[in-house]
């Protein structure tokens, strides 16, 4: 990284799952650098969804380095996900034709219920034993996959965890870490966010700020996607031998499966 920026820059790892993110400092300048970010980043920056993209450089080995304005701020707390600003920003993201067009140009295909079920069944085949509630959940997904069909696909972040929402010192809100973005039913993001963070009595109000009504159809779709995502969380933690986390998500799966009897 030093040869890109020149002498005098102090470069430090900035965390992240890939280990490809860095903080660079020189006098009063601070940059967020990342190796091989998606071209999608430019549109996200133009839309004001992530901190401003300053420049992009391609290296001789084919790697691409991006530099963004360093955000002096903090992650949202779980209790702050009920804020209107979160609903408004997610509504703007899901409603953006520019973001959708860019992902399509990058070759992204819509994530369908059938593809999700196929991925889950592949994970099951790699397991020595499939717990009974996982089998019950997969049966539910298969039974309901045609009921929750939804024509409108949008750009979904797919990991709207509170740790990915950043608020600046000037109270600007951003949603970061877009490496897993997909074209999908907006209920994929909505289900995760509402089930994790928003009290059930506040769902209708939160969704009105986002820009839709809480219908039975939306409830069915959100429930379907949160069941699917929870199964995948059980497998993800199990593969990493994180037994406490695996048990947490398995218990959460049992809890949300009980809802299927009165939603559908």
Automatic annotation (TrEMBL):
UniProt keyword terms in alphabetical order: Transferase
InterPro entries per the UniProt record, alphabetical: Aminoglycoside_PTrfase, CcrZ_PhaseVar_Mediator, Kinase-like_dom_sf
Record flagged with keyword Transferase: yes
Superkingdom of origin organism: Bacteria
One example GO MF annotation: transferase activity
Pfam families named in the record: APH
Residues covered by the Aminoglycoside phosphotransferase domain: 14-218
Transferase among keywords: yes
Gene3D superfamilies hit by this protein: 3.90.1200.10
Protein name: Phosphotransferase
Species per Swiss-Prot/TrEMBL record: Fictibacillus enclensis
